[in-house]
Write a structure and sequence with these properties.
The complex is a heterodimer of chains A (51) and B (340). By secondary structure, chain A is mainly α. Chain A has one helix spanning 7-16. Chain A is elongated, with a radius of gyration of 17 Å. In chain B, helix 3 packs across helix 5 (123-136). The radius of gyration of chain B is 20 Å and the shape is globular. In chain B, helix 1 (33-43) links the parallel strand 1 (2-6) and strand 2. Chain B has a single domain (2-299), classed as Aldolase class I (TIM Barrel). Chain B is 37% helix and 16% strand. Classes of the chains: A mainly alpha (51), B alpha/beta (340).
Chain lengths: 51, 340
């Protein structure tokens, strides 16, 4: 485990190291199982739930 | 946009890997209807494609049916451990209130495993809940969090799926959690190992005939390109999360807006304080700090990703893993081929 730290600071530090980009992320999306949209799990797996 | 409403932190299970265990399963962390209304006032006119209600364990919230009714005509999904869905009367009430979809988090493939993982004998109850969902015609999905231990019992999980007639299964990936103001890797398998096990699991899925989707939130380059082609061809692959796309809204029980359920220590703002109306919320989202934050979470983790042919479909995977791993530890190589 790393030493204790402020999570917000850690997140900002990691984000700051990312190269700049204007990329629009699309992802793959499966729509197979209920015909309209797939079903998401725990709330942060995002777009599998969207239309 | 998609909106997640964490309506409580109380739970009737104690899962070893729960991302919310740092919150202490507090019974007082329950969303009051006034907070619920504050949130809706701020976002109610936005194009929300789906509301997803979760917890804690949301079925322990006494106002759940009223909340579902209030969210209609939007689509409403519920993420639950399903213990309370053994009560068919209660499930009927949720359906009549307008519930569209139920996702059940499966915590084990035997009663012994359930007890060990959650402190509760839950498998038989989940089976009864699935039977009720089928009987009432409610769309549902079994969610499995992928780990080395799950892979060991994966054939049992698949045969359980078949025996219960559960509609479909989604495979999700264990990620680091914030614990005691630190990043905990306890119980989180190495991403490269999870990728290996993903490939290994596929043959089992295929031969079982189970309806199964991989919500792959690791860098795609951990998988062989041929395997990605196969999953895409079979329509079994979902990638890129809301944090990367910036199209999600996640509210905590007190109305705090957070960027991701793994980042409840990173509040962005609060309904009723930082924004009370839709106009205020739109201005808040367009503010420099929030805008820059999402630009960064939606960017690539490593320079090498910029030349990858699948960069838009991958984005390096879930941002949370980079709180522990350096990009060079996860990003193996850029792809140069197409998947179609």
């Amino acid at each position: 485990m790393k030493a204790k730290q402020n999570i917000k600071q850690l997140v900002n530090d990691v984000l700051a190291k990312r190269p700049a980009s204007n990329l629009k992320l699309s992802g793959f999306k499966s729509k197979k199982w209920d015909g309209t949209s797939n079903i998401c799990d725990c709330g942060d797996d995002g777009d599998c739930c969207s239309e | 946009m998609i909106c997640w409403l964490t309506i409580n932190r109380t739970c009737n299970m104690r899962c070893k890997w729960c991302y919310a265990r740092d919150e202490g399963f507090k019974s007082d962390a329950t969303m009051p209807l006034t907070t619920f209304e504050n949130i809706l006032r701020a976002i109610g006119t936005l194009p929300i494609s789906r509301f997803i209600i979760l917890g804690g364990e949301p079925t322990l919230h006494r106002d759940l049916p009223a909340m579902i009714r209030r969210l209609k005509p939007n689509k409403v999904a519920l993420v639950t451990n399903a213990l309370k869905l053994t009560d068919k009367g209660y499930l009927s009430l949720l359906k009549d209130s307008g519930l569209d979809v139920v996702t059940i988090s499966l915590k084990g493939s035997s009663e012994e495993e359930y007890k060990q993982n959650t402190g509760v004998n839950g498998l038989g109850k989940v089976e009864r809940a699935v039977a009720n969902l089928n009987e009432l015609g409610i769309t549902h999905c079994i969610s499995v969090t992928f780990s080395s231990s799950v892979v060991k019992v994966f054939p049992q999980v698949l045969s359980w799926m078949k025996s219960t007639n559960a509609q479909s299964m989604s495979i999700n990936y264990c990620r680091p959690v914030v614990l005691d103001n630190d990043i905990s890797m306890e119980g989180v398998p190495n991403p490269k190992e999870m990728a290996r096990q993903t490939v290994k699991s596929y043959e089992m899925v295929r031969s079982s005939g189970a309806k199964c989707v991989y919500n792959f939130m690791l860098p795609l380059c951990l998988l062989p390109l041929e395997f990605i082609r196969e999953l895409v061809k079979e329509n079994l692959l979902t990638t890129v999360c809301q944090l990367q796309k910036g199209n999600g809204l996640i509210f905590m029980p007190d109305g705090t807006l957070i960027p991701c359920n793994h980042l409840f220590g990173y509040p962005l703002g609060k309904a009723g304080e930082d924004f009370t109306t839709a106009d205020e919320f739109i201005n808040f989202r367009k503010g420099e700090e929030v805008k820059t934050f999402y630009q960064k979470t939606g960017s690539l983790p490593d320079k090498r990703c910029q030349t990858c042919s699948l960069k838009a479909q991958c984005g390096g995977g879930c941002f949370i893993q980079y709180l522990h791993y350096k990009p060079a530890e996860l990003v193996v190589r850029p792809f140069h081929g197409s998947v179609t």
